[in-house]
Design a protein that fits this description.
By secondary structure, this protein is α/β, with parallel strands linked by helices. The protein is built from 10 helices and 12 strands.
């Protein structure tokens, strides 16, 4: 393989925070690395979702969109065979590409390109990871914010943000921790970027926080960045797949997120490698302590947020391109040695 490798990029939208724009950033990085790129988008989100309509109405020119059902995966396998691309990169959160990647089993040039966090127990696919890229952000890149609207608050007053779905266990810890931290701070609310669920609403009620806990639904990209920029603190659970791009956008927004729940361990480990891990709560009491420090604007969380912006620079498309060049070069030298 050399730097002029033809690449077929399969962008699987299998995580919270994933969107077609991510394929654009990855394709840009591949082209900066000297590759030629074709893109196939796999989007299984419901057509009746008002924020995320069917993929074929949201893709740009040169991008083919498929639904990851039986017919779509057969079409994908045929598309890969017809392309003759020596390298097929499956960008997704699920290990090995997840069960959908079985469509590419046996294709020598197919590799998993990790682009998110998947909780333990997620069904794995057959693809080996591209060398040099590990979850949750191996294949991810973040572009600099381009709109001043992203700095405008979408909420009247200070708030704590949860940008991904919560399991019941993590929700209970989060609501109890928020209740303790918010005692005496009547102006602070908790905003969850997920659809309302009756069981979670009852847990917020049990914590005495139902009036101050708001399930506002998934956010489109520009709104998501506005939430991240203006939140007093961001709590990231690992209970459902979370895109690496979401984590990087939090850093780019000047927010060092706090991982919460037992499933968020890999997210905490990754934040540690960036130097942006300032709190790793193990329970409701730990969450309360972390939120108290953030709401009081203590030096630890404030300095971590300032460092987060600097850390995000290492994940611009040009930086990802350099890592791609290094990986392809290593693969080429390995093949020559063999």
């Amino acid at each position: 393989m050399n730097s002029r490798t033809r690449v077929l990029l399969v962008e699987h939208l299998d995580a919270t925070g994933a969107a077609p724009a991510d394929a654009r950033a990855r394709a840009l990085a591949l082209r900066k690395a000297g590759c030629t790129v074709e893109v196939v988008l796999l989007d299984g989100r419901a057509d009746d979702d008002l924020l995320y309509r069917s993929a074929d109405r949201r893709t740009g020119p040169g991008t083919e969109a498929l639904v990851p059902n039986a017919n779509g995966l057969r079409a994908l396998a045929a598309r890969v065979r017809d392309s003759g691309a020596p390298l097929v990169l499956w960008a997704g959160a699920a290990p090995g590409g997840g069960t959908a990647a079985a469509a590419l089993a046996g294709i020598p040039g197919a590799r998993w390109w990790p682009s998110g966090h998947a909780p333990a127990g997620t069904a794995a696919g057959p693809l080996r990871a591209l060398p040099g890229f590990g979850p949750p952000c191996g294949a991810s890149a973040v572009e600099a914010p381009r709109s001043s609207r992203q700095r405008l608050s979408l909420w009247d007053g200070p708030f704590v943000l949860v940008p991904a779905p919560l399991s019941e266990a993590t929700a209970r810890e989060t609501f109890d921790g928020f209740a303790a931290a918010a005692a005496g701070r009547d102006e602070v609310d908790l905003v969850v970027l997920d659809h309302p669920r009756r069981r979670l609403e009852s847990l917020a009620r049990a914590a005495g926080m139902d009036v101050r806990t708001h399930f506002v639904g998934p956010a489109p990209r520009e709104a998501e960045v506005a939430w991240l920029v203006t939140a007093a603190a961001v709590l990231v659970p690992g209970d459902a797949p979370v895109s690496g791009g979401l984590l990087l956008r939090a850093l780019s927004a000047g927010t060092a997120p706090v991982p919460v729940g037992a499933a968020a361990g890999p997210i905490a480990d990754w934040l540690g490698t960036t130097g942006c891990l300032w709190a790793r709560p193990r329970d409701a009491e730990g969450i309360a302590g972390a939120l108290g420090r953030a709401l009081d604007r203590e030096d630890g969380p404030r300095q971590a947020g300032e460092h987060a912006r600097e850390a995000a620079q290492a994940w611009r498309p040009a930086a990802l391109a350099a890592r791609i060049e290094a990986s392809l070069g290593a693969s080429s030298r390995s093949a020559e040695a063999a």
